[in-house]
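Hypothesis: this fold can be encoded by more than one sequence.
Test: take the structure tokens below, design a sequence, compare later.
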């Protein structure tokens, strides 16, 4: 009966602690930042189209350098991940993905009965994807390679050169397969850092998935999209969407269009906020280097931190999480993502900077409760 495996990441949509460092988003937009409520007085609450509002698809297409006919609007990015798994993978088909990984991306593959080959990415190697190691996971029966750039939970991006190597391997070993790139964090850059180009331009077998949840501060709209330049796959996505949700909410699509109208300003504001959070996190990691290592992210409101094995045995790791919970602070346990528990995702984008400073102070105190530098508890 359990088609979707349970995962404690569901706690993120439950009660909120005093300091939430487990979240992977920046500050939430408010409705009054986008519209005067009277603007929507004449909005028809009818069904939308299965493909999605054309004006919204045009805005998304313009942002990715594609045609609006290449875009299918979905109910958040997770809906797109599920539809693609359902369409591309028959039960028993091979799908290749990575670990650590956003668990819902893996769950979508498991729910359709795909045989999952997992490429383990290493904290010690900065969670960088090695195409040579990926080659060993590909076979002639591989139907889908599911990646994320930047990755969740690490915020580490897959460079365009690496993606091109992946595409060459797929073309050589499993030419019928598609390469899905979850680009939800792609535009969540820091300060003046360049924003990477979308992977969808790299080839006809590349599918880009993203949403308004992470870079734009609108997770409550439940608005995402899939971009494919393969007409047959796009048609299957439209049919699959119709058979699961019929269409997206007309209100969500109208508000999403307002977000795209303000997209440049929203992203510019968030660049400053995310950079401030990143700099505080980097300073915190330096100040606590006796206790932790971290991997600096390339983009996004998140990073991975590891409790040093020389300082924290398994008991001390558990004590660390207990100390945090006792202080009303939450981080995202690495086990949520297929990583070991001594690694955790630290979200530095949600809180105002004064609260982030307080939360990091609480986090530092929890590090010192279970263990002392240079010895195991």
């Amino acid at each position: 009966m359990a088609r979707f495996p349970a995962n404690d990441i569901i706690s993120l949509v439950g009660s909120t602690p005093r300091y939430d460092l487990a979240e992977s988003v920046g500050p939430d937009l408010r409705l009054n930042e986008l519209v005067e409520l009277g603007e929507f007085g004449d909005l028809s609450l009818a069904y939308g189209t299965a493909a999605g509002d054309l004006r919204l698809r045009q805005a998304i297409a313009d942002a990715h350098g594609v045609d609006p006919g290449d875009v299918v609007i979905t109910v958040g990015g997770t809906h797109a991940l599920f539809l693609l798994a359902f369409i591309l993978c028959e039960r028993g088909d091979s799908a290749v993905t990575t670990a650590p990984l956003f668990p819902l991306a893996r769950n979508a593959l498991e729910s359709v009965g795909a045989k999952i080959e997992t490429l383990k990415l290493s904290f010690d190697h900065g969670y960088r994807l090695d195409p040579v190691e990926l080659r060993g996971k590909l076979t002639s029966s591989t139907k889908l390679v599911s990646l994320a750039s930047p990755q969740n939970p690490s915020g580490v991006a897959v460079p365009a050169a690496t993606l091109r190597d992946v595409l060459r391997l797929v073309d050589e070993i499993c030419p019928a397969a598609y390469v899905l790139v979850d680009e939800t964090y792609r535009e969540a850059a820091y300060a003046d850092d360049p924003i990477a180009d979308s992977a969808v331009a790299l080839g006809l077998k590349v599918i880009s998935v993203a949403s308004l949840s992470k870079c734009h501060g609108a997770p409550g709209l439940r608005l995402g999209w899939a971009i494919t330049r393969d007409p047959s796959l796009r048609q299957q996505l439209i049919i699959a969407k119709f058979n699961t949700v019929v269409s997206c909410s007309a209100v969500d699509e109208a508000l999403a269009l307002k977000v795209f109208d303000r997209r440049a300003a929203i992203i510019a504001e968030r660049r400053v906020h995310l950079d401030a959070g990143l700099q505080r996190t980097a300073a915190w990691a330096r100040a606590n280097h006796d206790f932790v290592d971290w991997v600096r992210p390339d983009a996004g409101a998140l990073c991975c931190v590891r409790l040093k094995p020389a300082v924290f045995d398994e008991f001390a790791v558990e004590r660390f999480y207990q100390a945090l919970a006792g202080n009303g602070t939450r981080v995202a346990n690495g086990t949520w993502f297929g990583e070991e528990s001594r690694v955790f995702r630290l979200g530095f984008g949600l809180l105002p900077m004064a609260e982030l400073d307080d939360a990091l102070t609480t986090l530092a105190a929890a590090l010192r409760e279970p263990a002392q530098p240079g010895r195991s508890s």
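The longest strand covers residues 142-148. The two ends are 42 Å apart (CA to CA).
Hypothesis status: open.
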